Amino acid sequence: MTAIISGTRPEPPGAWTATLAFGYRAILKVRHVPEQLFDVIAIPVVFTLMFTYLFGGALAGSPGRYLPFLLPGTLVMAVLLVSMYAGIGLNTDVARGITGRFRSLPIWRLAPVAGAVLGDLARYLIAAGLVTALGVIMGYRPPGGAVGTLAGIGLLVAFALCLSWAWTALGLVLRTGQAVMSTGTVVLFPLTLASNVFVQPRTMPGWLQAVVRVNPVSHLVTAERGLLAGHPAPGQIGWVLLAAAVLLAVFAPLTGYLYTRRA
Amino acid sequence: MYGKTYPAVEAEGLRKRFGGATALRGLDLTVPAATIYGLLGPNGAGKTTTVRILATLLRPDGGHAAVLGHDVVREAAAVRRRIALAGQAATVDEDLTGRENLLFVGRLSGLSRSGARARAAELLQAFDLADAGGKPVKAYSGGMRRRLDLAASFIVPAELYFLDEPTTGLDPAARAQVWQIVRAVAQSGSTVLLTTQYLDEADRLADRVAVIGHGTLLAEGTPAALKAEAGKGTLDEVFLALTQDTERGAA
After folding, report:
1. A11, A25, A103 ranked by CB distance to B110: nearest
2. Quick check: is A226 in a domain?
3. Which ipTM was obtained for this model?
4. B121 CB near a chain A CB, below 8 Å?
5. What's the Cα-to-Cα distance from B23 to each of A191, A228, B244, rounded to whole Å?
6. Which of B1, B107, B185 is most worth mutating to test chain A (most A CB atoms within 10 A of its CB)?
7. Which residue ranges form the domains of chain B, and what is each CATH number?
């Protein structure tokens, strides 16, 4: 019984230490519940295989010629889908009541949220790494080389880190993790399909071309294609960075506000 | 051991509404330092709301409360440095192992990496969880989970422990274990504020109890004094008499 109370209470941790502890917790969750992550990554993996071998010949003459077009798109798809987990995780924490413990601790108020976003970074890198590796196994050699590939993954991850704040805000508004997931899917799937991920919009009806052109996913995919192909398109990259900044500026404060109110 | 010039809790006229429902309607509460204090009440009486306000998780709509001399709204950070919370209002992470949970809470409480490791091992031992430390909490029984939750709140010493229904759903052996822990904590000079639905628990464990119903204080005192005052033999009878009166009053 003597071991229950011991020592003196240490100074509370700094904001960075607390954020790292939450980030580490997110990584532990990937280790203990990997299916949560891999269920989501399975979708772009299946799409990559299916579109390349099933439709690649019809769309681009041969699967080998289609893959360099498709892979940057499914890479974007994978990381965007994984980004939903920021919102699902935060929602689960609130629903299970563990945020009560967090809030009774002498830590930076937003450390749980900032740490969750940091943990997302690991998840994005795993998702991007897996899809890229799949492409390489299927014979894809990014003309942009290692530098172009890393720059492409870097831009994508930066965008996803900003987008994940929209999911955290949604996770604090909706009642269950299931609702966050279905809302996320309902938003992401049409955005991914009605974009230039799978085909160029040339052959689409005019109204759909207009949709594809304004779809942010199309801009992201075009920027990724440029980087991976070794012909970076500064306009598209600038557009993606601007969109990311806007998402961050709107949803990070909103998440902070909702978190301090609800959790 | 700690400054005992302030009562552990001093609350006056606490009010809280959730939408249309009133949880607290002017609750007064004083918890003397270095005691085990029982907060009793039927479901929905406002016990958890009170704990959540005192532990800085919720802001009261009206009234004010000081914990160890610090206002729970204006000086929330100072309060958090002195308290620990376990039970309904705070839980552990089901996806992580018991040890990982303790390491995590240890780091968040300001322990170094090695300090947290040592403390986690010590607590797993003390709470009879040494063998289960590497298993995910999902695989724990209700009693094991509750013990881990308590262990997490003892990771660093606190001046005031809030234990929100720490024994609800436990079997008699596990309850006795928790009681033993609570007594050991009180002997160390800290204050324990525990909520419970079990009146025998309050009777055996608490130095003083407060009975609340419909968000107000119905009676307060030592278990013996409350029984003598009401002319009843058990705390159960006192409790029933008090809470039935308010039911009638509210109707």
Report:
1. A11
2. yes
3. 0.86
4. no
5. 44, 59, 18
6. B107
7. 1-82+162-251 (3.40.50.300), 92-157 (no CATH)
